[in-house]
Design brief:
The protein has 235 residues and is α/β, with parallel strands linked by helices. The protein is built from ten helices and nine strands. The N and C termini lie far apart (51 Å). It is globular.
């Protein structure tokens, strides 16, 4: 079976790339299992000093869970498979968030639902001018899952409620304002950012401090544009 992720360790960086670009890197059960296995290995691998998560293709990090796969299980009466899927998905989100090394997530392009679950619980979250971030589950009558409720509850004011109930799609500035992302880095700078993170990870400082990682990202970040959510907040 062809792997649905790309995972390698170079210069102290564990590169984890979701590799289903034709499906917008949607998370299937098998793909989640592959991610879980890699994270289990990297958790105890002393050569992994930083993890960088991104998505293959130029459309986005991850469109979310594989809804077609889940729908097929439910309509076929295999509800246990759907429950098994969510157990694995939530465990992977928690494992990524709890890695003992800094995690940088590149939320370039579409990052929704399960993609937010993977990316937005990390300590260093990067968005670009192409980012489109949302918890669209509510459009099909589902709660904001993958820890989305935890994230949205911490948005300023009552924005979290609006974002959840309306399945609002955020751009980079909105995601930063709402607390789902940290740094605005133009997509053209991402390759250089990756190289600088590798230089930091291979420098030999042990343990690698997350603030040092943030400093590297800040060197490539620009001030985010004004969030449209700010203007709409009063309404």
């Amino acid at each position: 079976m062809t792997s649905e992720i790309l995972a390698r360790v170079d210069d102290g960086v564990g590169h984890l790339t979701l590799d289903r670009p034709r499906a917008l890197n949607a998370l299937g059960y098998t793909m989640l299992g592959e991610i879980a296995d890699v994270l289990d290995e990297w958790r105890v691998d002393p050569t992994v000093r930083l993890v960088l998560l991104d998505g293959a293709g130029d459309r986005g990090l991850c469109a979310g869970g594989d809804i077609r796969e889940l729908h097929a299980s439910v309509v076929a009466g295999r509800q246990a498979e759907a429950r098994r899927y969510f157990r694995r998905e939530y465990a992977v989100d928690a494992a990524l968030a709890e890695l003992p090394v800094p995690v940088v997530t590149i939320m370039d392009g579409i990052t929704m639902g399960g993609g937010v679950g993977l990316a937005a619980h990390a300590p260093v979250r990067v968005v670009t001018e192409r980012s489109r971030v949302a918890m669209p589950e509510t459009r099909i009558g589902f709660t904001p899952d993958v820890g989305g409720s935890w994230l949205l509850a911490r948005a300023p004011g009552r924005l979290g409620e609006m974002l959840a109930l309306g399945a609002v799609t955020m751009d980079a500035a909105d995601a930063i304002h709402a607390g789902l992302a940290d740094h605005y880095v133009p997509s053209e700078r991402l390759p250089v950012l990756g190289a600088d993170l590798a230089a930091l990870a291979s420098a030999g400082v042990d343990p690698l401090d997350v603030e040092a990682v943030r400093d590297v990202v800040r060197r490539h970040a620009l001030p985010a544009p004004v969030s449209g959510l700010v203007a709409r907040r009063a309404a």
